[in-house]
TrEMBL record:
<feature type="domain" description="Thioredoxin">
    <location>
        <begin position="3"/>
        <end position="159"/>
    </location>
</feature>
<dbReference type="Pfam" id="PF10417">
    <property type="entry name" value="1-cysPrx_C"/>
</dbReference>
<dbReference type="InterPro" id="IPR045020">
    <property type="entry name" value="PRX_1cys"/>
</dbReference>
<dbReference type="Pfam" id="PF00578">
    <property type="entry name" value="AhpC-TSA"/>
</dbReference>
<dbReference type="InterPro" id="IPR036249">
    <property type="entry name" value="Thioredoxin-like_sf"/>
</dbReference>
<dbReference type="InterPro" id="IPR050217">
    <property type="entry name" value="Peroxiredoxin"/>
</dbReference>
<comment type="subunit">
    <text>Homodimer; disulfide-linked, upon oxidation. 5 homodimers assemble to form a ring-like decamer.</text>
</comment>
<dbReference type="InterPro" id="IPR019479">
    <property type="entry name" value="Peroxiredoxin_C"/>
</dbReference>
<dbReference type="InterPro" id="IPR024706">
    <property type="entry name" value="Peroxiredoxin_AhpC-typ"/>
</dbReference>
<keyword id="KW-0049">Antioxidant</keyword>
<protein>
    <recommendedName>
        <fullName>Alkyl hydroperoxide reductase C</fullName>
        <ecNumber>1.11.1.26</ecNumber>
    </recommendedName>
</protein>
<dbReference type="InterPro" id="IPR013766">
    <property type="entry name" value="Thioredoxin_domain"/>
</dbReference>
<dbReference type="GO" id="GO:0004601">
    <property type="term" value="F:peroxidase activity"/>
</dbReference>
<dbReference type="InterPro" id="IPR000866">
    <property type="entry name" value="AhpC/TSA"/>
</dbReference>
<keyword id="KW-0575">Peroxidase</keyword>
<comment type="similarity">
    <text>Belongs to the peroxiredoxin family. AhpC/Prx1 subfamily.</text>
</comment>
<keyword id="KW-0676">Redox-active center</keyword>
Length: 211
């Protein structure tokens, strides 16, 4: 059965470049970004793995761990790691799952029957500390993922959880947010005592807390 937003992310145990990963245990109380690659030694994914390694401090600020996946075996991963460091100027600093048996790919529906081949599509999952899937994205093999956008969504999701806020179109951190419609004005007044801009009863804009 296909996964949906709000589902519990399937647990698994799989080998990786950092040893066996028992996924839920490894995730702990962190947010997780799980992203897959069609195969090792592919050009677009090589650039992505370097970028995610560079972004590790940004993920750590957000209590977030990154974990990659490719269906090639561990020995290929270890050879690819050297290429990533050589070409991207940054060593891999997060685990890369070796999903040669496609156990994880199947659990997360990463192999699409109508794709050009049987390799994993380039999927992204954001998973919260309760192990719930909060975002799913699928990219074509030819287009590099935009990890600034993935960070932006992560910031938005964390605002929703911590402050009962949603974010408007083209929102960037520091911009005005939207009080979620489920929150009454009485409840909102306790959370946002400085008030808000009520453009419509369902559209209440407020400054981002802490900004």
């Amino acid at each position: 059965m296909a996964l949906r937003l709000g589902d519990i992310a399937p647990d698994f145990t799989q080998e990786s470049t950092e040893g066996p990963i028992h996924f839920h245990e490894w995730a702990g109380d962190s947010w997780v970004i799980l992203f897959s690659h069609p195969k090792d030694f592919t050009p677009v994914c090589t650039t992505e793995l370097g970028e995610v390694s560079r972004l590790k401090p940004e993920f750590e600020k957000r209590n977030t761990k990154a974990i990659g996946l490719s269906v090639d075996p561990l020995e290929d991963h270890r050879a690819w790691v050297g290429d990533i460091q050589e070409t991207q100027g940054c060593a891999l600093n997060f685990p890369l799952l070796a999903d040669a048996d496609r156990k994880v790919s199947d659990l997360y529906d990463m192999i699409h029957p109508n794709a050009n081949d049987t390799l994993t599509v380039r999927s992204v999952f954001i998973i919260d500390p309760n192990k719930k899937i909060r975002l799913m994205l699928t990219y074509p093999a030819s287009t590099g993922r935009h990890f600034d956008e993935i960070l932006r969504v992560l910031d938005s999701l964390q605002l929703t959880d911590s402050h009962k806020l949603a974010t408007p179109v083209n929102w960037q951190p520091g911009g005005d947010c939207i009080i979620v419609p489920a929150l009454s004005n009485e409840e909102a007044a306790k959370l946002f005592p400085e008030g808000w801009d009520e453009q419509k009863p369902y559209l209440r804009l407020v400054k981002q807390p802490g900004k």
